[in-house]
Amino acid sequence: MNEGPLLSVRDARVSFATARGALRAVDGVTFDLHKGRTLGIVGESGSGKSVLVRSLIGLVGADSGAEVGGQVLLEGQDLRTLPGARLRTLLGRDIGIVFQDPMTSLNPVMKIGRQIGEGLQLNRGLDRAAAGRRAAELLAEVGIPEPERRARQYPHELSGGMRQRVAIAIAIACEPKLLIADEPTTALDVTVQRQILDLLQREQRQRAMAMILITHDLGVAAGRADDIMVMYAGRAVEMAATRALFRAPRMPYTEALLRSLPRLTDVAHTRLAAIPGRPPDLARRGGGCAFAPRCRYRSARCDAEQPVLTRDGPHGFACFNPVGAGA
Amino acid sequence: MSVSAAEPAVTARPRRRLSWALALPLGWVALVVFLAITADWLGLPDPAAQELILRRKPPSAEYLLGTDNLGRDMLSRIIYGARTSLIVGLCAPLLGFLVGGAIGMSAGYFRGKVDLLAVGLIDILLAFPALVLALTFTAYLGQSLFNVTLALGILSIPAAARVSRASTLAWANRDFVLAARTIGASDWRILTREILPNLLPPMFAFWLVAVSVIIVAEGALSFLGLGIPAPQPSWGGMIADGREALDVAPHTALIPAAVMFVTVLSLNFLGDMVRNMVDPRRSSL
Amino acid sequence: MSDPPGAPLLQMTGLTVEYPVGGGRHVHAVSDVSLAIRQGETLGLVGESGSGKSSLARALLQLPPPKDGSVLFDGQELTRLRGEALRAIRPHLQMIFQDPIASLNPRRRVAEIVAEPLIVSGVRDAAERTRRVRAVMEAVGLDPDNVWTRRPHEFSGGQCQRIAIARALVLEPRLIVCDEPVSALDVSIRAQILNLLEDMKARFGLTLLFIAHDLAVVKSISDRVAVMYLGKLCEVADSASLFANPAHPYTAALIAAIPEPDPDRPLGDTRLRPGDPPSPLDPPSGCRFRTRCPHAEPRCTTEAPPLRQIAPGREVACHFPLV
């Protein structure tokens, strides 16, 4: 891969001022994403994964009461320093987003065809008729039968799976270079989930887009992401190629998470290796590693110092006592 | 792996600092209430005592707010007028909320025929032009503090019923209400112990706003001469009296108007503040 | 193949639940379902949205009573009970909900919430109530002194679920219906709560009906599993057999659709015919799964397959089962 990365994020920070002190929702995240690759960002609630991605594209900023820091380079341009109008054009054309709940991410009082066509008219300069035609084509491409009829319908007339397909159509309409999917299938049934993820993957391959797939479901990440970044309490605690992460996790959190999952391959009533405690309160963070209170490899250093992401080849982890250190 | 038994709660209770936005309106309302209650012991001149020689005097050292058309002390009349406004303003919505609240809660909880009946009743009451209804009431039953309060109270029933019905609908579908049914709680118990406590905060916030509306309504009635009869002072009546002298002695109308304005504004602010504070906080999963 | 743990604690026969939605139409949430829950077992109930699993659970508890069918609990016909008689049965049948925070009254304190069932069922002695509430709180891993006067919003989802479990346990029920108890919780907390449920079941001799859409979770905790689709039962079997050799094509599709946290396992082929799941407002005739089933034949359109036993402990509703 000789090209530079499509997206380069350096030390992204997002912090909110709350009554209880500064809440560091994203606390210094750095990563690269190359064209055609899928990065899975995995984390639980409070990990900062959604806030991170929303801050990258400007959905979380000064007007939401957040302090945002760091660099976000899309093909070399720093999104953070672009003036509003330029940023909006860039976002409309080069980045497509699919959100978790299609019922709230689609406009309930606007026909579907028009919602898809809107972006085309704004960002690609198509006229109404051409946008309408392209919208019907896109609906067919995302697997909606009778696309012309559906284009004239409203979101509430469609099922959840279909609405998410529409959301995907809107996201890819302007041929973006980067597709961001924030928990795109969490609200869907498992059989529909499979179809939507297949669709996302197919569209990504066909259009050679880069994709960021945010999920809390390790199974989804395992099957669809090339590389995975695990987030915990606002920081990236592990980054690796998917296979390497699952086969040999270095971060104790990742290891513990994998061990605590019930598997179809287990015998029934296998005692689950639960992780004690719960995710930390971001407003009351102490100085050391955020995972230390729940970690089985905890040492004195973990409570005093915060580990930085160190690399062992392509595999990065933020831990003083990583798994497999003795090996 | 044993479960950690002594997990601390997620949030410590935050200290609440009194911001200016809350302190000023609260202070004003508190002042008005205090003065209204202690009026008799403040050594004020008789609000009904006329001194025609001293009529329409502007504010001075002796008469802090001046005198009105008939030479009566404005400050004294304002304070006694506050009493009238507050009694009507606090009691009328209370009546409305007790009756309307009960109607709305039943409608929202039991649905079906009860809901249909309640909504129909509310719609009928709302169809009457409010002021006309109040006028008819006082004209037929006579003008008195009690009748005015009663009339305005009845007029606030529909609004209260709507608020409590909407709120009940939202709460009655929550899982904790279903949980209460699974343990065998009776409808009465569910209404009073599960739903009502959740209804009180939004109802209280709305009540504060209703108070301000009723104060203005009473003012309007008195302005029209159909509210509290003279010589009992009332802000609306004072504005009416002062209307004739706007060109020579504007203070006689403007001072009661200003006092009413600030009081109503303060109550609205407080109502908004309470509404903002009231949302039950949800911790993240 | 294990022996069934015991006689049926609860027997549902011909259960039917329908909701009117205006215009004379009805949602056929549950259609003629017959299912037994055996004493001391954990019965898993899986299905996607529209399958009717939550409606079944609520109908079981008579909240509200089903349109048709019988629910026999411990020899008593629940559908015919009303008022006081129904309330007298309630202590034996409890429920835990999906959203732990919404299942607790935000205005009440934790101690009151857990004590409420005792008050409602007539335990007058306050000291006795305190004793029992403390005992059950300790059992679920909560520190009574720490949580006593606090309100639900001060706790995390996992802790709220513990409180809800404590409330369900305080009346010492025979059966607890768990409606997606871990779906809304963080992944790292799920194992804790699942372990807790297993511990409580063993300690108090409970029977559980465990509803979930996550098959791995269901397999982990259940003895037997029942699969529902669009209001009907597809398959009932013991956990191991169901997942090793599913008999119903829908079960096979569900298993294949699960994203396993193992990048080396290729994504299974669900083999479902493309198209949206049908609506419970207007279920397909005959076998309701036929519109998406890869093995559908003309017979499936005209004749609804009955639930029949194909092996000891295995029932399936399919004309052409995979086993």
How is this structure best described in words?
- The complex is a heterotrimer of chains A (327), B (285) and C (323).
- Chain A contains twelve helices and twelve strands.
- Chain A has 327 residues and is of the alpha/beta class.
- Chain B has 285 residues and is mostly helical.
- Chain B has one domain (20-37, 62-280): MetI-like fold (Orthogonal Bundle).
- Chain B has helices at 20-38, 74-110, 112-127, 130-141, 145-155, 157-172, 175-182, 187-223, 235-243, 251-278.
- Chain C is an alpha/beta fold and 323 residues long.
- Helices cover 32% and strands 23% of the residues of chain C.
- Chain C contains eleven helices and twelve strands.
- The chains are: A alpha/beta (327), B mainly alpha (285), C alpha/beta (323).
- At the A-C interface, α7, α8, α9, α10 and α11 of A face α7, α8, α9 and α10 of C.
- What's the number of domains of chain B? 1
CATH homologous superfamily of chain B, by name? MetI-like
Largest interface: A-C, 50 and 45 residues
Shape of chain B: elongated
Please give the radius of gyration of chain B in angstroms. Answer: 24 Å
Major β-sheet annotation of chain C: 8 strands, mixed
Any idea what the shape of chain C is? globular
Percent of sequence in beta strands of chain C: 15-25%
Assembly of the depicted chains: heterotrimer
User: Strand pairing plus helix content of chain C: what structural class?
Assistant: alpha/beta
Number of extended strands of chain B:
0
What composes the largest sheet of chain B?
none
Count of DSSP H/I helices of chain B: 10
| CATH architecture grouping of chain B | Orthogonal Bundle
- The CATH class of chain B, by name, is Mainly Alpha
